[in-house]
Structures are given as C-alpha cells and as structure tokens.
C-alpha cells in the first residue's frame, strides 16, 4: 500500500506539473499575439512627458536587459543602457542604434554602472540628475548566477547576494529620490524568478515560521529579509546550509530572488501612500527559462520573450492595485 500511494502521489504530481506546463505554453501563445498589437495613442502615456520619458535598464549589455532596453527604446522612451563592462555596454548600445529601423526614432545612450559598488551607484545617480533631471522608469535587471544545469554550488553565494539583492536594493534607494513627478506615476520593475517564491512547490523554504512571516504583511520588514540573508550566508561559511531547509535548486540564486520578491512587496506598501502626481509603482516579474548566458543557453524561450512582461509592466497604465505584485507572462502570480 505504501508503494502504491507513493507512486500514485508521484503520478499526480507529474500530471499537475504537466498541466501547469501546458497552461503556461498556452499563455505564451496568447502573449505572443498581444505583443504584436501596437500601443494606441491614448495608451502611450510616455509620449505626453516633456522633454521625454527616461528609462534606465541595468545589466543591459546582453540577454533580458538588452532586449528590455531595445524594446523600450523602440516604443519611444529615451533609454539609458547600463552595464558594468564598458566595452560590452558601448557595443550593445551601438548595436541597438544600428539595427533600429530608420522610422523608429530610437533614442539611447550608455553609462557604466556596477550595482555592487556604492560609489558607482552614487556617481550614476549624480549623472542622471545633472543630465536628465531624474528618470521615469527603472528596470533592475543586473544579476549573476554561477550555477548551470544540475550544479548547486554556493561557492559564490556572497557575490550573488551582494549583486542580486543588495545591488538591486541599493539602486532602488538611489533612484527613488530621482523619480520625476508626473500624472502617470514612475515605474520600478525588478527582474526576479519563480525560484524565489516562498511557497514554490519544488523549491520552497523548509522553515514554516519564516515562510509565514515573509508572506504576512504585518511581519514583513527589511530587517526580516536581511536577517534571513545573514543567516544563510553564515551557514554557507559554516558549511551547514544544506541541512537547514534552504531551497535545494540554485540555492544562492533562489534566496537572492526570494529577497528581491519580498523587498518588492515591502516597497510597494511603503510607496503606496505617496500623493497624486508623485506615485511610484514597483513590481517584479519572472521572465521564464530564457536562453541566455546566465542559463547556459538552456532555456526554452528567447530573451525578447523573457523581457516582454517587464517592458509591459514598465509601460502599463498604472493604478494603485498594480503595486508590489509579482508577474509572469503578463499575469499576476503568487509570491
């Protein structure tokens, strides 16, 4: 009976997973059709901003960031493409400008930015104020992942956390004072992952108490998120992390994205009471399993497809209900 029950549960799990995959594929096909629809003039709030809407995309020299920068520029925003590596960033910017159709009117420039370096973020913020007077859209894409395939090393856990979580948080803190007031609200979009879901069926945190606190708005705080990160990194140094109920798939990357997701929810709540004309909407999204260098080119969708939901969030006519949420395939998903 035990063997039968185990096999039955496993089969049920496979069927549920197969059904989820099928639904996701169906949604991908629907989104492909939506992507082909142009924005109507009344939807293009960014065209009504003078002298222009400015969007910053971090880690945009390749992959999802590159596509987000390219798509936003083609939609008519002025894009600041940033990258840590100067040569790669300049090449990426030149490629977008060169490949743009003549009628597209693409406006784009490149700046160096390293989210893991406080001085670099501060210098970028000072430049953004001096050059553009501020920004309207921030897409936090920059991130690292050192695991590929079945690997699950935490050798570079500190670097992953410093870039993916603390770097993202550092950039948000620096850019919020620079967000230009407008009737349409400013936008912050954080690239995240389903691997960072608190209650993900295959990669959840084993500590039930921590899960409950992360999902409870009354308990969620910056201190709670930082304490979770500190505890994980301490256990990495001690070599005890694998026996302490952390996610077992891409562990350091998953925890960094769990922190990004939680921080997005927290900031959505903090920013929700800003007065009209000074609204800032912050959301995160999972691009899916994308064919990029970060996945070792093992994904099942293109970088352009992966960037789509982030670009859609950046351009969406915002309202208070779209704040501090998690999205995938242009739909809200649970944390």
TrEMBL record:
Residues 1-25 are annotated as: Disordered. It comes from the Eukaryota. Keywords: NADP, Oxidoreductase. GO terms for cellular component: membrane. InterPro entries: CBR1-like, NAD(P)-bd_dom_sf, SDR_fam. GO terms for molecular function: oxidoreductase activity, acting on the CH-OH group of donors, NAD or NADP as acceptor. The keyword Oxidoreductase applies. It is an enzyme of class 1 (oxidoreductase). The keyword NADP applies. CDD domains: carb_red_PTCR-like_SDR_c. Transmembrane segments: none annotated. Its EC number is 1.1.1.-. Belongs to the short-chain dehydrogenases/reductases (SDR) family. This is Short-chain dehydrogenase/reductase.
């Amino acid at each position: 009976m035990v063997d039968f029950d185990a096999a039955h549960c496993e089969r049920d799990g496979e069927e549920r997973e197969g059904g989820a995959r099928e639904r996701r594929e169906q949604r991908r096909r629907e989104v492909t059709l939506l992507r082909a629809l142009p924005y109507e003039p009344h939807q293009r709030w960014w065209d009504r901003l003078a002298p222009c809407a400015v969007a910053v995309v971090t880690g945009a020299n390749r992959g999802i960031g590159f596509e987000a920068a390219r798509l936003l520029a083609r939609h008519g925003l002025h894009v600041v493409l940033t990258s840590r590596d100067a040569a790669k960033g300049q090449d990426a910017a030149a490629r977008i400008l060169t490949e743009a159709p003549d009628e597209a009117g693409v406006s784009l420039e490149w700046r160096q930015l390293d989210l893991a370096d406080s001085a670099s973020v501060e210098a970028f913020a000072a430049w953004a104020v001096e050059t553009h007077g501020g920004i309207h859209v921030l897409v936090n894409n920059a991130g690292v992942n050192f695991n590929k395939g079945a690997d699950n090393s935490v050798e570079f856990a500190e670097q992953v956390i410093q870039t993916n979580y603390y770097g993202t948080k550092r950039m948000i803190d620096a850019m919020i004072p620079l967000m230009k007031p407008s009737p349409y609200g400013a936008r912050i979009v954080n690239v995240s992952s389903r691997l960072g879901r608190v209650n993900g069926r295959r990669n959840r945190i084993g500590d039930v108490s921590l899960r409950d606190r992360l999902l409870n708005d009354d308990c969620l705080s910056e201190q709670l998120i930082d304490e979770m990160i500190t505890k994980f990194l301490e256990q990495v140094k001690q070599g005890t992390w694998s026996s302490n109920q952390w996610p077992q798939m891409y562990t350091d990357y998953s925890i960094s994205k769990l922190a990004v997701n939680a921080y997005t929810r927290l900031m959505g709540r903090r920013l929700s009471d800003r007065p009209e004309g000074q609204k800032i909407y912050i959301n995160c999204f999972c691009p899916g399993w994308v064919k990029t260098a970060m996945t070792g080119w093992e994904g099942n969708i293109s970088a352009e497809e992966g960037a789509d939901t982030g670009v859609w969030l950046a351009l969406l006519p915002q309202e208070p209900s779209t704040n501090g949420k998690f999205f995938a395939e242009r739909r809200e998903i649970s944390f």
